[in-house]
Every structure is written in C-alpha cells, then in structure tokens.
Write a structure and sequence with these properties.
six-stranded mixed beta sheet; Oligoribo/pAp-PDE_c-di-AMP_PDE; 2 domains; five-stranded parallel beta sheet; DHHA1_dom; inorganic pyrophosphatase (n-terminal core); binds manganese (II) ion; alpha/beta; single chain; 39% helix; Diaminopimelate Epimerase, Chain A, domain 1; 314 residues; Bifunctional oligoribonuclease/PAP phosphatase NrnA; DDH_dom; 18% strand; 11 helices
C-alpha cells in the first residue's frame, strides 16, 4: 500500500492535501506533516494544503489559497476524514486521482486508493510510519516542523497518551519524533491554553450538567448561555470531556446549539456510541462520535438511546 501511494506521488507534479472540516490537531498534523515530508523530499513538486482555517490552531499550519484550475491533473490526498461530506474544500473531487488515508472505520470507501488503519492512534502516526517506509526505500526526508506537526497530531488524538489507542508503536514513534528540534513546551502551551471566557464556561458546565442512571451525563448549551460567556459553539465544544471523570459515568453527550442546528458530541467509556451517532446524521469512533440534529425532541431521543446503551452494556 505504501509503495502504491509513493508511486502515485512520484507520478504527479501537483499534490493537494485535504483533511476534515473543523480540524483538530490530528487533521492538521497529518495534513501538514505529510506536506512537510513531500516538500522536503520532492522540492520540484508543487504541494498544497487546503481547507478552512481553525483560529485556535493556526500555530500548527497555515492553509494555501489555490484556484480551481490547480486541481486539474493534480493528485489529491485526504487525511483523517472518514466520509466525503466531512472533507474540507469540496473541490477535492476535481482532482485527477484521489487517495484516502484514515484511521476511522472505512464506511465511506471514497477515492481511487484507500489506506485505512483503524489500529493507528492517529493519522499522524500513520504518516510517520509512511515516512519511515519512504526513508528506507526512497530517501524520504522529514523536517523539524514536520516532526512537530506529527507529534502534535499524535498528542491530540491520544489525549496526551492517555487513551488506550496509544500503543507501544505510538510511544515509539512519539519518542523518535521528540528527537527533532522543536519547542515542546510551546506546543503544549498553544494546544491547551484556554481563554478566560472558556474557563468560566467550564465552571458553568461542571455545575449544570445532568446525570441520570445508569451512567448518562448530558448538557445542553444554548446560544444564550454561550453569548453570556462570550464563547463560540466550536470553542464550547472543547469542554466535552469536562465531567468525564465523574464516578459512575459511562456515556455522555454535549449538545451545542447553533443558529440552524444542534451539534451533538457523544463520548463513552464502554457502550458503543457511533451507532447512535449514525442514527442522527453522524458518525465517528465507537467511543467518540458526533452528529447533528434540529429539534429538542431528537436530543431527548439521543439521551434515551444512551440510557439504553448503558443498560445493555451492564
Ligand atoms: Mn484522527
């Protein structure tokens, strides 16, 4: 698979790298890390990264602005994006050949070539593995900035190596990436800084979330509350794990109201929740998924679904 991807990379002079909408550190880390590797290894090729900017993560990587005609005859590589609807910059389909690289379940098998590894902690980890193969067989190079981006992506998707997806391989790769020259303290400071407003909203979430047996937590953040704390919907969603360590909690859900929809963030310590997300126009990992609904009634149904999932898992 890695060899096939490298052959395609060698075939094309223009390569455009995408990732999912509302990017997290792994989306930007895998996208930016791959672009650093390809730029350093193939200096004569034109390598672009596209998608909307995420203000809280611009320290990682700035996006390129390219016109539609650049996609003509280009190789498109899409990182960390399970389904086509979540690809940031829908012009991806104008590319000549499409490669999907992902670690989510391969339900939407888009693209001409697919590399999915659901055992990988992150796509950043996969990109580093890809780089190691490329280094051994094709003289691939990795820059300090590239190593910083991949490390940041791994840290993001493993919750600082806390989640069980951090395997021996993850740790080994992270250890190797640490040998590159980048400022780890600065990365952590950027990744985990919170605004004063968000810190205050965190206090609100802790004192207002609801807990119901047998182990379901939920909170509904209205636009009014977010206005009161002067936080945006995407910022507020960062608080999804705020009450995850409460005793007895098995699954929890964050409802974040937006002008035209309600964002649903589902998390779990056991019961599978991506099947529930799939019922409500969403998807994701078994223990962490997202969905979108439009009515309070649907949010109540989701809570009931979580209660059932907790009951079934007992
Ligand atoms: Mn990821």
């Amino acid at each position: 698979m890695k060899e096939q991807i490298i052959n395609k990379i060698k075939d094309y002079n223009k390569i455009i790298i995408h990732r999912h909408v509302r990017p997290d550190p792994d989306a930007l880390g895998s996208q930016g890390g791959l672009s650093e590797i390809l730029k350093a290894t193939f200096p004569d090729k034109s390598i672009y990264v596209v998608g909307e900017e995420e203000p809280s993560l611009t320290f990682m990587k700035q996006m390129d602005t390219i016109s539609d005609d650049v996609f003509k005859g280009a190789l498109v590589i899409i990182c960390d994006t399970a389904n086509q609807a979540r690809i940031s910059d829908e012009r991806f389909s104008k590319g000549d050949y499409i490669i999907k690289i992902d670690h989510h379940p391969n339900e939407d098998q888009y693209g001409n070539l697919i590399w999915v590894d659901t055992d990988a902690s992150s796509v950043s980890e996969m990109i580093y593995e890809f780089y190691l193969y490329g280094r051994e067989h094709h003289g691939f190079k990795l820059t300090d900035k590239g190593a910083e981006l991949l490390y940041t992506g791994i840290v993001g998707d493993t919750g600082r190596f806390l989640f069980p997806n951090a395997t021996e391989k993850t740790m080994k790769f992270a250890g190797e990436l640490r040998n590159y020259d980048f400022d780890l303290t600065a990365v952590y400071n950027e990744m985990y800084k919170v605004s004063l407003n968000l810190a205050r909203l965190n206090g609100y979430v802790l004192s207002h979330f609801q807990y119901i047996e047998p182990g379901v937590g939920y909170i509904y953040l209205t636009q009014e509350v977010m206005e009161q704390f002067n936080t945006t919907a995407s910022e507020s969603s960062l608080l999804v794990n705020t009450f995850s360590n409460v005793e007895g909690l098995k699954t929890w859900v964050f409802f974040v109201e937006e002008p035209d929809q309600i964002r649903v963030r589902l998390r779990s310590k056991g019961p599978v929740v991506n099947t529930i997300a799939a019922k409500y126009n969403g998807g994701g990992h078994p223990m962490a998924s997202g969905a979108t609904v439009h009515t309070i009634k649907e949010t109540e149904q989701i809570i009931q679904d979580l209660v059932s999932a907790c009951t079934d898992s007992k």
